Amino acid sequence: MSTFFSVIATILGALVGSFLNVVILRLPEPGSSIVFPGSHCPACKAPIRWFDNIPVLSFLILGAKCRSCRQLISWQYPLVEIAMALLSFALYRKFLFTPLFLGYFLFCAALLAIIFIDFRLQIIPDRITLPGIVLGFGFSFINPQVTWSASGLGLLCGGGVLYLIAGGYYFITKREGMGFGDIKLLAMIGAFLGWQSLLFVIFFSSLLGTLVGIPAMIRQKKGGRTVIPYGPFLSLAAMAYLFFSETIVRLWQMFLLPAA
User: 136-148 pLDDT, tens per residue?
Assistant: First the structure.
């Protein structure tokens, strides 16, 4: 039975991943709808029939090309579907089909959309983060792992910490090094995961950003003016904390509170 429901969770994730591709492409466009018109080819605008819209499988069957115009289909589509399927599977294995699964399913879906939007356009839509902050705080009232006070402190500290960092960077360099989208994103993360998650999320996202940023600086030859979206690293760090918080806390204790 556990295997059956794991498969159901995986299929659910893939289906939602297919919808997330629509969100990723349309949500950043002012006045666009994620519902109308229906799915269509970005190149020739031909409607995509249901049997060509099956997550991952249709992409493989069609050979990564539109059936109508034979234009290549972006690999983003199956990547998002597979990623959301894996996240849903992992959430089921951790929480089963409980309210925690539903709340963190929405959280992971929002983070996944942010990763691809910010990477492509270097923006984090308020239409994701602001409702996410409210939802994360409301979720804390039924979440046994994060109290409402930890959630409230998390959203306040999350936004406040990055605001201070961004303000300090601007004061020293007279350049903006971090957008307000990142600040709202960390507030959303704090609302869902509590203030206890923030130290790890900031540390790990900075580490990931450094590992990616140094090669990018060398490649772009722009030095400190190299532009790298920070939202994907914050999102990945939040996912890591969500799934491995127990291990992370033990490691923190080992290094910060060594045995006498």
Answer: 999 999 999 999 9
Q: What are the start-end ranges of the H helices in the chain?
A: 2-26, 57-61, 76-95, 99-121, 126-139, 148-173, 180-193, 198-220, 231-256
70 CB-side CA count, 13 A: 0
Residue type, 97: F
* 66 and 116 co-located in one domain: no
Q: Which of 66, 97, 128 is the last residue of a domain?
A: 97
Q: How many domains does the chain have?
A: 2
Indicate if 128 and 251 belong to the same structural domain: yes
Q: Provide DSSP, 202-245.
A: HHHHHHHHHHHHHHHHHHHT-GGG----SHHHHHHHHHHHHHHH
Contact 187, 195 (CB under 8 A): no
Do 90 and 105 lie in one domain? The reply is no
Tokens of 85: 């399927």
The first and second tokens of residue 29, run together, are 């466009």
Residue whose C-alpha is closest to residue 10's, from 78, 74, 90: 90
* pLDDT (0 to 100) of residue 258: 57
86 and 145 both lie in a single domain? no
Residue 233 structural domain: 99-260
Q: Which of 97, 127, 149 is the last residue of a domain?
A: 97
pTM of the model: 0.89
Does residue 189 share a domain with residue 120?
yes
Q: Which among 79, 100, 84 has a CA at the least distance from the CA of 245?
A: 100
For the segment 240-252, what is each residue's pLDDT rounded down to a tens digit?
A: 999 999 888 888 7
